[in-house]
Amino acid sequence: MKLRGPLLLIAPSLIFLTALFAWPLVAGLSQANGADIRRMLDDAYFWPAARNTALLIVVLIPLQFALAIAMALLLRARPRFAGVYFYIWVIPLAISDLAAGLVWLAVFTDRGYLNSALSQLHIEGYAWLSYQHPVTMFLAVVVAELWRSTSLVFVIVVAGMQSIPRDYDEAAAVFGANYWQRLRKVILPQLRPSLQVALILRTILALETFAVAQALTGRNMPLLVGETYQWYAVLQNPNVATAIALVILAVSLLAAFGYLRALRS
After folding, report:
1. 3-class DSSP state for residue 164?
2. What's the rounded Cα separation, in Å, for the pair 128 and 39?
3. pTM confidence score
4. For the chain, which has fewer Cβ within 10 Å, the N-terminal or C-terminal residue?
């Protein structure tokens, strides 16, 4: 009897989540059969897409968190015009993925701003986005994603730092702890819940990177979500597209579980 009240209160949320997540998951599992999975695994683009997606996450996530934490610590020091810095740094949140990709395409294309600047310095231009230069093509996507999505991590980290009392930091300073000791022993441990949320969100969103890479590289640098789009919209095979989507879902769940285990109190 005591449980009936709380269950009635959360029943609408449970029904909503079941309809929104559980039913599409069941439908997806029933749609992709063994033949579709084999076709996905035998596709020439699948394994390069999986490698590129994993490499993008491994390179991008640490860079984003290092930048976001550094920016949040700068704001915590309350410099002049701190509010201006905050609003400038969150501007990319208002820009869509495709628009960000097109902005950076104008920078990295053969006749783009970067090569124009190099020509002013009498340096020969470079085909940054050519399929013959996979390293610079990958770096262009990393730079574009770094600019576009670091602001999300930054906002979460700033919100987490607002809840950390300055008394702890000041007490550690009184007892002789230097700045780096206070950062490692006082600030970052209390920032753990915010870092958990940011890690889970950014990893899931990094797995779904598509529009920026599509604008910059097309299919020269395949990614998992891009292959889902190719199979569904171009090749007209929703079953294989569903199989790739289930791979993305499985990796997202494993990553979320790993972060929760690694950063638990």
Report:
1. coil
2. 33
3. 0.85
4. N
- What whole-number distance in Å separates Cα of residue 235 and Cα of residue 212? 21
**What would the two tokens of residue 131 be?**
């399929």
Query: Of 162, 114, 141, 132, nearest to 216 (Cα)?
Result: 141
The single-letter code of the amino acid at 35 is A
CA distance 232 to 240: 8
d(C-alpha 70, C-alpha 76), whole Å: 10
Minimal CA–CA distance to 225: which of 239, 235, 213? 213
Tokens of 148: 């576009």
Cα–Cα distance list, 264 to 8, 138, 193, 251 (Å): 30, 33, 8, 20
Tens digit of each residue's pLDDT (9 = 90 or more) over 76-121: 887 788 788 888 888 888 888 889 999 999 999 988 899 999 998 8
Query: Would you give the DSSP letter of residue 94?
Result: G
List Cβ<8 Å contacts ≥24 apart for 256-261: 256/200, 256/203, 256/204, 259/196, 259/199, 259/200, 259/203, 260/196, 260/200
- The rounded Cα 215 to chain-centroid distance in angstroms is 17
Q: What is the average per-residue pLDDT within 33-62?
A: 92
- Distance (Å, whole) CA 109 – CA 126: 9
What 3-state class would DSSP assign to 64? helix
Q: Cα–Cα distance between 217 and 101 in angstroms, integer? A: 10
Phi, then psi, of 223 in degrees rounded to 5:
-130, 160
User: CATH classification of 33-262 is 1.10.600.10, yes or no?
Assistant: no
Say if residue 142's pLDDT is above 90: yes
